[in-house]
Amino acid sequence: MRVLLWHVHGSWTTAFVQGDHDYLIPVLPDRGPDGRGRARTWNWPESAREVTPAQLDADDVDVVVIQRPQELALCEGWLGRRPGRGLPAVYVEHSAPQGRIADMRHPAAGLLLIVHVTHFNDLFWDCASSPTRVIEHGIVDPGYRYTGELPRVAVAINEARRRGRVTGTDLLPRLNGTVPFDLFGIDAGALGGVDDPPQEVLHRELPRRRAYLHPIRWTSLGLTLLEAMHLGVPVVALATTEVPDAVPPDAGIVSTRVDELRAGIERLIADPDEARELGLRGRVAALERYGLQRFLDDWDDLLEEVVR
């Protein structure tokens, strides 16, 4: 099947393009948001190939995976067909809705089948008459790599300063106590961290830290949290959005109480054996629920249904 999709979320797309399809990734000369092309910091198979708008033909596309409202117009302009009207399409919603609960109408409501990546998102978005599905994340397993040799805590936040309260950046001084934190992510360098490391660097560095902290208040479900669990890193996380369902009680430290999270961090720093055991249980839970093959199978079933 020939699947057109934009490179929007690198980690999610890395899993998606592992399937048995031909993935058409738009590329523009400036490699801006509407044409990033292939990823440069993730490893993608050759079946994910770059195409310019001039190379696209509606007859060569079996289905479109829309991820942002503007892609509806881009698709119509480039292919001469509107997704959902003569061109099979689905809309993947990666994010939790923002704003007042009464104003959370989805931009694709009434237009396309909407696929949510968490049950929390499906619950909170108002999709009106549009049918919805939930296809939970799948992770390309990086393997068990945990050493925990550094008595430090890893934190991964993109745009930590700008997104402050959403990402829980303001909680870091309350959570770290005497434990040093290492911040990774886009613009992390502005706060003394490591700025936008490639995935292979993140997968190498996270397992060296004793634990991984997920302080985000309002997000869909951070994929770095799931990757940390796959790596065998014990996780400490705010019990918000999908996290309490994604991290079983015996597979991580999850709470809305800052004092409990801080105490959990300090305990893991002081007890490497407990940290290792917690990480092993987290890895088992993550492999069972967020395995790559289940994710790909779910998507195969849905795409076949849409193109019938």
Class computed from helices, strands and strand pairing: alpha/beta
Largest beta-sheet characterization: 7 strands, parallel
Q: From the 3D coordinates, which CATH architecture of the largest domain would you assign?
A: 3-Layer(aba) Sandwich
Number of helices: 11
The general outline is globular
Number of domains: 2
Strand content: 15-25%
Oligomer: single chain
Q: Alpha-carbon distance between the termini? A: 12 Å
Give the overall average pLDDT.
94
Helix/strand order: EHEEEHEEHEEHHEEHEHEHEHHH
Name the poorly predicted regions.
Answer: none
CATH superfamily annotation of the largest domain: Glycogen Phosphorylase B
Q: What integer value in Å does the Rg equal? A: 20 Å
Description:
The chain folds into 2 domains: 2-138 and 292-307, Rossmann fold, CATH 3.40.50; 150-289, Rossmann fold (3-Layer(aba) Sandwich), CATH 3.40.50. The protein has 11 helices and 13 strands. The longest helix has 18 residues, at 272-289. Strand 11 (209-214), helix 7 (223-231) and strand 12 form a beta-alpha-beta unit. It starts with a strand and ends with a helix. The radius of gyration is 20 Å and the shape is globular. The chain has helices at 10-16, 70-79, 119-124, 164-167, 172-176, 199-205, 223-231, 243-246, 258-270, 272-289, 292-307; strands at 2-5, 22-26, 48-51, 63-66, 89-93, 113-116, 132-134, 150-156, 181-185, 194-195, 209-214, 235-238, 253-255. It is an alpha/beta fold and 308 residues long. A 7-stranded parallel sheet has the order 3-2-1-4-5-6-7. Helix 9 crosses helix 10.
